[in-house]
Design a protein that fits this description.
Blueprint (H helix, E strand, L loop, with lengths): L1 E5 L2 H13 L13 H13 L3 E8 L2 E9 L16 E8 L10 H16 L4 E4 L6 H9 L3 E8 L2 E9 H5 L17 H5 L12
Parallel strand pairs: 4-5
Antiparallel strand pairs: 1-2, 2-3, 3-4, 5-7, 6-7
Helix pairs in contact: 1-2
C-alpha cells in the first residue's frame, strides 16, 4: 500500500538526511546538510505559508519525499506565468537498499500526481528539474508533462514543464493501477526505491 502523510521534521529528519547524503540524490544538492540542518530545512518547508512537505510510505515504510509549493510565490515567481490552480512539485525517491523492484518509481510518481490533483486540488502540476537530469525527463513524459522551455533558477538551468489533470489521465502513468501493477506484493517494502530511476526524480 502506498500512502502520503504530512512531514514531521523531528520524526522524519533522520531518514530524509540519509536520503539527502546519498550520491543518487545529487540533483537535490542537500548533501552538505547535517541532521540538524535537515530538520531545520524540513521545518522551514512545513512552516512556510506557500509550501508543504509530505512523506510517502510504501507498505508502511518511508520511501519518498514530496514537496509542493505555490509557483506564483516560491522559486518560480517572476519566471513562470502561474495560472490559478498551478502547484509546484518536487519528488525524491529513497536510494536503493536491495533488489530492484520494477515499476516502483512509476508507482510513486503516479501516487504523487494523484495526491496533487485529488487531495490538494491542483489544476496543473509544475516541475523544474535540472536540464542534466535526463532520467526524470523520461519519467515526467510518462506522467504527461509537457515541456514549456528552459529557465535559469538558483543553482541550475531547469526544464520548466507542466501537466494538467487531463494530461496525466491520458498518460501511461495515469492508468487506474497507477503504475503499481508490476510490483510484487510486499516487494516494495523490502527493497524500497530501487528501480533505475531512483532519486533522479524532480530536481
Amino acid at each position: 500500500m502506498l500512502t502520503l502523510r504530512p512531514v514531521d521534521p523531528a520524526r522524519d529528519a533522520a531518514v530524509v538526511h540519509a536520503w539527502f547524503r546519498h550520491p543518487a540524490s545529487a540533483f537535490w544538492a542537500m548533501d552538505g546538510l547535517d541532521l540538524t540542518g535537515t530538520r531545520d530545512y524540513l521545518a522551514g518547508v512545513v512552516a512556510h505559508p506557500h509550501q508543504d512537505g509530505w512523506l510517502g510510505l510504501v507498505d508502511g515504510g518511508p520511501t519518498f519525499l514530496v514537496e509542493t509549493y505555490d509557483p506564483a510565490c516560491v522559486l518560480l515567481a517572476g519566471v513562470h506565468d502561474a495560472a490559478p490552480g498551478d502547484l509546484g512539485m518536487h519528488l525524491l525517491v529513497a536510494p536503493p537498499l536491495g533488489t530492484p523492484v520494477h515499476g516502483l518509481t512509476s508507482a510513486v510518481m503516479a501516487a504523487t500526481m494523484r495526491h496533487c490533483f485529488d487531495t490538494l486540488g491542483a489544476s496543473r502540476v509544475v516541475v523544474e528539474p535540472d536540464v542534466r537530469n535526463t532520467r526524470i525527463a523520461v519519467k515526467n513524459a510518462l506522467a504527461g508533462f509537457r515541456v514549456l522551455r528552459e529557465v535559469d533558477l538558483p543553482g541550475k538551468r531547469a526544464t520548466l514543464a507542466v501537466c494538467t489533470r487531463d494530461d496525466f489521465a491520458a498518460s501511461p502513468l495515469g492508468a487506474p493501477d497507477g503504475g503499481f501493477a508490476d510490483l510484487q506484493p510486499g516487494g516494495a517494502a523490502s527493497a524500497r526505491a530501487s528501480d533505475p530511476l531512483t532519486t533522479a526524480v524532480a530536481r
